[in-house]
UniProtKB/TrEMBL annotation:
The keyword Signal applies. It comes from the Bacteria. The lineage of its organism: Bacteria, Pseudomonadati, Pseudomonadota, Gammaproteobacteria, Chromatiales. PROSITE patterns: PROKAR_LIPOPROTEIN. It comes from Rheinheimera lutimaris. InterPro entries: DUF3299. Keywords: Signal. Residues 1-23 form the signal peptide. This is DUF3299 domain-containing protein.
Amino acid sequence: MLRTLSVALYLTLVACFAAGLSASEVKTIEWTDLMPEEDLKLLEQMPEVQHDYSQPSPFDDDYKGDDPAAQQWQQIMNSAKVVEKYNNTKVRVPGFVVPLEFDSEQNVTSFFLVPYFGACIHVPPPPPNQMIFVNGAKGLKADMIYSPFWISGTLTTDVMTHDLGQAAYSLKVDKIEEYTY
């Protein structure tokens, strides 16, 4: 009887420990994972861009035509649609830092995480569903922002708007690591 009770207690503890591990497991994701399927399909079906500079480009902000590719491009670039299954999920995602706030020692305290270097600064920002607002950063020096990082934490589908862009996702950071492939 005592042995059966010990085995039952042991199995209960193992089950509780295993459940705790799966609940806190960090999922490594890619940027395309954050795009709803319909947005990803639109992006994959984009026609090849023609580089005929003698004609107005349907991808220019002041384009006045009715090119379907331009309309499709605008739909993709303005999409704030999210993938709900990632709401309140522990994730790890690679990206580049676009600083938004600093502390008195020039440490970055909040930033947009973006999929490519220079986003929001030298080029138009990525779509909102390809930007993550990150807060709670510690120890990220301003001179480190030219390198890619792995950012781990709890991802939510909370929208954050700033002068530099709009993020359809937010992340409470747990860990920042230099990016390694």
